Amino acid sequence: MSKLRCHITISLDGFVAGANQSEENPLGEGGEVNESARIFEESRENIGAAVMGRNMFGPVHGGAWGDEQWTGWWGDNPPYHYPVFILTHHPRDPVEMEGGTTFHFVTDGIESALEQARKAAGGKDVMLWGGANVAQQYLAAGLLDELELHIVPVLLGDGARLFHNLGDAKVQLEQVRAVEAPGVTHLKYRTVT
Amino acid sequence: MSKLRCHITISLDGFVAGANQSEENPLGEGGEVNESARIFEESRENIGAAVMGRNMFGPVHGGAWGDEQWTGWWGDNPPYHYPVFILTHHPRDPVEMEGGTTFHFVTDGIESALEQARKAAGGKDVMLWGGANVAQQYLAAGLLDELELHIVPVLLGDGARLFHNLGDAKVQLEQVRAVEAPGVTHLKYRTVT
């Protein structure tokens, strides 16, 4: 079955370290290439579409989309190469980029975004790109299937926590594996329903 | 050199899961015997003394020590078999138990407790038994050398956080290793000064 998967780098004190995270540098600055490279490669396998929060797509600045020409941080050929469904309150026509990435803008909520992404994925999995707030919503709604945390030995002291705002949701996780790599540990969990 | 070492079980959302933790059941309820047994054995090696917070030693109830006869949760023969220095505001004479455990009560702060424990350890390491508040104080003071976190896939949603109350302390940690075991991952860090 098509799964909803999420990879998030968090500090040892539990804050989402998303700021410098990217497809090219999935662990944020300081990420090393080694056992982590295998994990990273694996994270890209069997993904047919993605869901992304509005803040990961672009900066928030005045007006509905601020700049209607904004097409993400990633240049003309974003590293996704699949349809990406962006959660937003502001309708916008899809934007087709080079290399197979199309940005779709979803205004009717997380379930709709997942449904559309699943359909577009054609049987493959859907990647949830975050950020923290969006991951929280999918976790709380019981829609996330797999969560891989990249734990870096940094204390951020402040920021967004992945496991906040879960309300009364009874989220149950099961450890799938732990992989040690220099400067980071990759912890994979699946949700139990 | 004699190190100050600390083992703490924390939930995936970062709360100290100390309630059901004990020497016999170091991972709290649900802890399994396997790779974790090796980690547990290792944690007991080369320890010559310990420091412990007052709340780990006994229940807080009216009066200085409530019950002056209180000698801990562990019966006549506690599982330590070395001197244990308990941080408290209430002076009390040392209590010698069976099996080599002696409880000393330290009223002049964490540095004094560590100094006394180090001296008693005779070159071996000192175990910091927690709880969270005491661990925070040693972390913030830059006195902790080694921290091993046992991360269990549970969301507690509330409780004490190990990495709170660090004030302006610049705590730097380095990942030493990660060990996967059923239902838990053991993450070992050392502090960098």
Counting DSSP E segments of at least 2 residues, the number of strands of chain A comes to 9
CATH topology of chain A: Dihydrofolate Reductase, subunit A
Quaternary organisation: homodimer
* CATH class value of chain A: Alpha Beta
CATH superfamily of chain A: Dihydrofolate Reductase, subunit A
Spell out the key features of this protein:
homodimer, 193 residues, alpha/beta, Dihydrofolate Reductase, subunit A, 9 strands
Structural notes for this entry:
- 2 copies of one chain form a homodimer.
- The first copy, chain A, is α/β, with parallel strands linked by helices.
- Chain A has one domain (4-168): Dihydrofolate Reductase, subunit A (3-Layer(aba) Sandwich), CATH 3.40.430.10.
- The first copy, chain A, is 18% helix and 28% strand.
- Chain A has 4 helices and 9 strands.
- Chain A has helices spanning 35-44, 54-57, 110-121, 132-140, and strands at residues 4-11, 47-53, 83-87, 95-96, 102-106, 125-128, 146-152, 173-181, 184-191.
- A 9-stranded mixed β-sheet of chain A has the order 4-5-3-2-6-1-7-9-8, sandwiched between helices.
- In chain A, helix 2 (54-57) links the parallel strand 2 (47-53) and strand 3 (83-87).
- The longest helix of chain A is centred in the middle third of the chain and has 12 residues, at 110-121.
- Chain A is globular.
- Chain A starts with a strand and ends with a strand.
- The model of chain A is unreliable at 19-32 (pLDDT under 50).
